Structure formats: structure tokens, C-alpha cells
Amino acid sequence: MKEICFSVALIIATALNAECHAQQTSAANVPKQFSSKADLKKAGTSAEKIAAIDSLLQSFVDQKKVANVTAFVAKGGDVVYKKAFGWKDVEKGIPATPEDYYILFSQTKAVTTVAFMTLVEKGLVKIDDPVSKYFPEISDQVVTAVHNDGTYESRPVATPMTFIHLMSHSSGLNAGLVGRIRRAETQKADSIRRANGDTSTRRGMGQRTGGAGNARYLKDDMHALAKYPLGFDPGSEWNYHISTNMLAYMVERISGKSLRQYVKETILQPLGMNNTDWYFEPAALSRFVKAYNYADGKLEAAPNNFSEGTISKDQTYAEGAIGLNGPIEDYAKFCQMLLNRGTFNGRRILKPGLLI
User: What is the CATH number assigned to the segment(s) 113-255?
Assistant: First the structure.
């Protein structure tokens, strides 16, 4: 079976031992910037251990499990490891480097959640507020049965959806039987479209859940989603992914700014994550590693839809569950901010009490 294998990035901005956490929670020892002048012995490692990591990561490339891999390790702000292995472009023989851009996929979720928590810190919302307070159109029904024609039955929710449910992937959005309802409606709409002679492939700009859809704004997708019942009572089950997109839309509604603008102003720019974004100018496409499939023990070139989506002419659509892209050290700055309990680059993003 063919297994999709996009270029792998290991993001390790953590300690090499438990002592590091204690050091980083002390205000006097909180790193404000990354330093490339690490003392390996003081960091608790050695050249031999570094060589062992080199060997392991190179083996993934040699065995053709991945086209490339990059890794970053910092302790107390001292960069202990920052290397890349393999090929940015196999066919052209271009080596990978730590400065290459990667599709961050679900690493975007953590950034979106921090963005929401900055609104909590500002007193604009509480984590246990009902989502309907800010988005009255959100469903208050749970699907109980789906008929063959796509119609369904539902009942009122046992408990209202709150922001805690969105952050913990337990909102019930697009879960369970809801998928059957939406698939039936999509198939019906596609049949009508084809019957009318429309055979075009509809894919909008940017990176999208499922790789499909042509909504111009995230709000379009979230309003469409809110028309459906929930798949389960909020808080009763776990269903990964889509809740963070609704959380992102709530960031937009509460802040009054687009997700992209708010995240850039509140997190990316203050932390110095200058090469991380949802969209780029066309020239930046050359900085992305190419995508490959791993199948039958070998790599083969795959479509680069995700990277190509970042240079769309129309740049209004930005999800909260996926969509950010950039180099490994940029994301390590975000990780270090979390380890520092809210600060990095001389800027405080969140108060310590809002980071668990």
C-alpha cells in the first residue's frame, strides 16, 4: 500500500535531561535568544552522542524512508544540534539544509491555541464560555440517525459546546454520523454539477483540510459546518482536528482581525519567526523541500500541492488546524517560548498561569 511520506522535520526544542526544565523555569536562566556556541559537556551530551544521532537520521535517508530530515535541539537556549540530512530535491541533487521550509501541518494547532489564549489573557473571552455566546449559529443538536437519502434525526445537546471542548478536540463538530450526512450531500451536489457539464476540479487557494474546497475565507467553511448537528455531546468523546479550525474562526470573531493577521502580530513577529506564514511570495517556493511518496521500499516524486498553495494569488483563506510553513528554527522559537512559560526574544506572549 502506498504511504504518503512528506519530508520529515524533527522539532526538538526541549531539554536533554530533567534538570533543564528546572533551569528554564527560573527567571534568571530563561533563554532570550538561541546561541550557536553550545558547550556540549555542560549541555549533558558529547560528540559521540551527536554522532549517534547523525547516524540514525542519515539511516532514514539511506533506507529511502524519507527524502530528507532535519533536527534541532536546544538546551537553555544553547543550540546543541541543528542539522539536515538527505535531499531537498532528489532529482536535481539539491541537499537539504536546516533553513529549508517545511509544511508544518498540525503544528499549526498549537500556534492557534496560543493565539486564542492571548484573547483569554486580555479578558475578551473565558475558556469555559459557551461558543454560542460568540457564534450563535453553532449547532445545539446531536445527530441520532441518518437515513439512506441523507436526511437525519437529532436531539438537543446534553451540554453546550465551550472553548474547552474546541481546544481539547471534544466539540463533536463533523464527528461520527455527520460525515455520512456531508458525504451524501457532496455526492448529490457533484452528480448535479457533472450532469450540467461541469467537470472542473474545485480547489481553492492555500492549504485545506482534506486538500479540497474552494471557500474564500475560513468563516465560509465554519458557517457551512455550523449548519450540521454535532456527532456527539460536547465533552463526551474525542475527535481530532476540525475543532481547531472553529477555534481559529473564533479568534477572528473575537479579535476582529483575520487569523493570519492576528497570529503574525501577536506571536510570529514578536518571537522573530520571520520566515513562518500561511502564504509567501512566489520566489519563496524554491525554499520548500519537495514532497515524495514512500512506496514499495522506494521514494517517488509526489504532488507539491501544499507548498504550491502557499503562493496563491488570492491569500484570504487560512486555517487554524493546518497551514503554517517555515524552517525548523522558527518553530523552535515557539517551542522555547512555551518552555520559558510565555516569553522569548524579549517579548512576553502569555502569562505563565495560562500555560499548563
Answer: 3.40.710.10
